[in-house]
Amino acid sequence: MRSKFLPVSLAALAAASPSVFADGAFYGDPPDATHPWTIHDMNRAQPARVEPGSFSTQEQPGKPPSDAIILFDGSPASVEKWAADKNPLEPTKWIVKDGTLQCVPGAGYTKTREEFGDCQLHLEWSAPAKPEGSSQGRGNSGVFLMGQVEVQVLDNFNNPTYADGFAGSVYGINPPMANPLVAPGQWQIYDIIFRRPVFKDGKEIETGYLTVFLNGVLVQDHTALEGGGGHMGRSKPHPFPEKGPLKLQDHGNPVRYRNIWYRPLPKRASEGGDTSTMSPEATAAKRKQIATSIRDAAAKQQGKEQLLHFMESLTYDADPATITKVTDLATAWHASFKDLAPDKLADKKGEVLQVNKAVQYLVRFKMLPDSFVLNAPLKKLITDLGWDE
User: Fold this and answer.
1) 275 with 268: CB under 8 angstroms?
2) Whether the Cβ atoms of residue 89 and residue 233 lie closer than 8 Å to each other
3) Which residue among 277, 308, 344, 376 has the highest number of C-beta atoms inside a 10 angstrom radius?
4) pTM for the structure as a whole
């Protein structure tokens, strides 16, 4: 819900004067030891604009979002982004047929030439329309993120198998929560959120996980990787590289794929990313960075605008030198009107209330002392003139 006290649109914000941003700063709860931004902080980066895509139908694949990196779009040229799973690389023996990337049994795994890590991955697959075999022998393939963690591809439409090998399973680790497959020959849709495990000095500091939607149904909910999974043996946590290829498995069945794309995900806090909650060290560094940026901008301003921006910087880093600067600016600003007659002061009402709001915020949260030079005088002035009613 948008507060009635906040600017009404991004267009208005973009056209606003610096004072709007400074005044808006003294609003939500301030940063703390693990949160570098205030609540409703205008100094946080605006989300990047992404044009949404469209949903797929059985007849045709949907359109990816505008920032998606396309791995296979059905064109013969896009197969050049894939190679056989060999070193050195060789062209893949999988074929493009009717706009799909189709496994040729015996050709071996295929993998992307491009490597990537944490991502949102979308792909669509189809098992043969005429089912053959049973259990793991029917429409079997697999999606290997970073070439290591398998999300199972299998025709489980009226075809039971072991639970942690079902379509939608993190193979060998966790069964899907449901079986929402449509009939073989139709397109099944995977949307996968992948986060690799993060290691530091040989120790796992953040577990990797997978969230998987199959045909729009949640089948894996933030499932821990437990080392990545595998066949028959229980896997153990181990370091992952920062990037790896996407691999598709040849398990002897002519499974088809289409509409394969991904979106890189931003770094997590454990990797130095800018997130809502960060380590005390990262939070302190980010707060100093924000404060420095605001002070650099304040140095180019004058009068009330300069005062408000230096005051705003104290929200992030209340260092003694800036407190002294704010005190000097506040004294000079107050001296410019404190001896005006009451009728002349009316023109200053908005400005006085704006600065007083900042003062009361900073005093309340102990960024300025109760004895701050403007605290008592502004309170008295506002009360005497009835501006507090």
Assistant:
1) yes
2) no
3) 308
4) 0.86
